[in-house]
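Hello forum,

I keep getting stuck at the same step: I have a sequence, I want structure tokens, and every attempt I make locally crashes halfway through. Rather than fight my setup again tonight, could one of you with a working pipeline run this one for me? It's a single chain of 288 residues.
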Amino acid sequence: MSDTEYAKDVLVSADWVENHLEDFQSDDPDYRLVEVDVDTEAYDEAHAPGAIGFNWETQLQDQTTRDVLSKEHFADLLGSHGISEDSTVVLYGDNSNWFAAYTYWQFKYYGHDDVRLMDGGRDYWLDNDYPTTDEVPEFPAVDYTARGPFEDIRAYRDDVEKAIERGIPLVDVRSPEEFSGEILAPPGLQETAQRGGHIPGAQNISWAIVTNDDGTFKSRDELEEIYAEKGIDGDNSVVAYCRIGERSSVAWFALHELLGYDSAVNYDGSWTEWGNLVGAPIEKGAGE
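Reply #2:
Ran it on my machine without issues. Output:
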């Protein structure tokens, strides 16, 4: 599908997507293209032809528990948009694939075999003048059977507590200002935690460092070097987290999928959970 140097063949180029636009627009469920953003305002204005639009905020998390979708709701969402468990699904989205990477992680959590990310995401597609439309596709619904959940790619609060006790690497992918506790959320975004700071022992390795200026992922050698400088080489477990689990999904994707570090997990509760827990230990300041 792509000429890749990475551990897994899970990235496709914008050129590859353009060459398969006819497949993505077919009623046949073999190929499906999905744009995932925090909401659908940008999608409604323009998107790749044939792309389905998913609203991360309302469609990809449980509105009552602020958790991942249940297996049943995940299956219903995909099946209602003409996605089968055998579909080749390509995901892309805004902010260099923040929410697309989260959705990729959720696809893997529920056992979808053939899911990819479009390298560079929505901005790359628009900036390089690939075709767009405002037409919303309608595909015949199919029955989707989800598997799992596969918990080996997910961390919960008790896993984080054990990681602190055992010295397992924790990667905080937020900005230095969030990590230090100076701010609670990126400028303009909702503050979802009562306290600022970071999980004790965590290292601040920004999600953005794994991508180039155009939003595409850095080479395998570059990614290995970035993490190796912090003592992360795939030999041990590593827990990635951010504020709401989407930026850490980018880091998890780089670690688990592109580098093949199979013990990498995503703590999707992230700082929204940890920063609101009564009695949970935190640290402030820039760290090492």
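The chain has two domains: 11-149, 152-274. If your local run keeps crashing, start a new thread with the error log.
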